[in-house]
Design a protein that fits this description.
By secondary structure, this protein is mainly alpha-helical. It has one domain. 69% of the residues lie in helices and 0% in strands. The longest helix has 32 residues. The protein is globular, with a radius of gyration of 20 Å.
Length: 319
């Protein structure tokens, strides 16, 4: 019981994700600033590290205003529910050789399903606001989710097919440089699809402030807005960890295995996302739909065909 509480409250649970989420927020600012020729936080604390804590503390203590026409209970509960659901995938991810909360033979399926719930919850969050701009942002979230989740699922399925298991720890243990090379096309598809699921450039369509104010988040302020932003950064860290686990060997290292290697792989994926965020423009909804349904899903299916062929030719096992 004590170990379970440790996993829920500290690592890899709430405490760990809060710490990583705050760290991600700071890293976002520090890397984006020079890319955009801006200063970035540097006054408070070493390299401006305290500024993020101060900003989040301000959000946490500000008043949360509920619109007059909103569904009061749904409006107030959805940010908390969304955060709780966002934290659940941590239970199936093997963070270290021994640190995994739920050991399941269907870890890949559980991971994909829990990630897929978030856009639906965001739509309900927007719906509860009774605001036309928030509702439009929520509809955009659903459209983008339906478009991206198929490619995301097919990409996550590729390591399960290659290794013949949906157990995430089994996938990590069987990973090698050869498997990474075989899975590399699926890894690129995974990165592309998760940018869509996380609403990151060039797929930050649901919160295009020039068009729909701020999308889903238009009516949220104070603590509720803080919880929604915390949910977003928690999803970042979970998807980074999921990508590193499925395609890059997770906690496996060169001379020894441990969390440090998983963390370094998460940072590599983070850097890729920040570079794209800094240097690419938002596309339109029509362009996103055309790209996803005409190209990304077709490429995802071709990738599965490649996995079947590669498994037979290079892994010494048949389909």
């Amino acid at each position: 019981m004590g170990h379970l509480l440790y996993e829920i409250l500290l690592f890899p649970g709430i405490g760990y994700l809060l710490l990583v989420s705050v760290g991600l927020y700071w890293v976002f600012r520090k890397i984006l600033a020079p890319m955009h020729k801006r200063v970035g936080p540097h006054f408070n604390g070493p390299a401006g590290s305290f500024q993020t804590i101060f900003d989040l503390s301000k959000l946490w203590t500000k008043e949360s205003i509920t619109p007059k026409d909103a569904n009061i209970y749904l409006f107030s509960l959805m940010p908390l529910i969304t955060l709780i659901i966002a934290l659940l995938p941590t239970a199936v991810i093997p963070w270290t050789p021994t640190e995994i909360v739920v050991r399941s033979s269907y870890g890949v399926i559980i991971f994909v399903i829990l990630i897929g719930l978030e856009p639906i919850l965001l739509f309900l969050t927007a719906f509860s606001s009774s605001n036309k701009y928030a509702l439009l942002g929520g509809v955009r979230v659903l459209v983008q989710m339906i478009s991206m989740e198929t490619a995301f699922f097919l990409a996550c399925l590729s390591p399960a097919i290659l290794f013949g298991t949906m157990n995430l720890q089994g996938i990590v243990q069987d990973s090698s440089w050869l498997s990474f090379a075989i899975l590399f096309p699926g890894f690129i598809i995974f990165l592309t699809a998760f940018l869509g699921l996380l609403e990151q450039p060039p797929f930050d369509i649901p919160e295009a402030e020039q068009e729909i104010v701020y999308g889903v988040y238009t009516e949220y302020s104070g603590t509720n807005y803080f919880l929604l932003q915390l949910t977003k950064f928690a999803e970042f860290s979970i998807l980074f960890a999921g990508g590193a686990t499925l395609f890059m060997g997770g906690y496996r290292g060169i001379f020894f295995n441990g969390y440090i290697f998983l963390f370094l792989k998460m940072v590599l994926i983070l850097f890729f996302m920040i570079v794209l965020r800094a240097g690419i423009v938002r596309i339109t909804m029509q362009q996103m739909l055309a790209f996803c349904w005409r190209y990304l899903i077709v490429i995802s299916l071709l990738n599965l065909a490649w996995i079947f062929v590669a498994k037979t030719l290079f892994m010494g096992s048949g389909i």
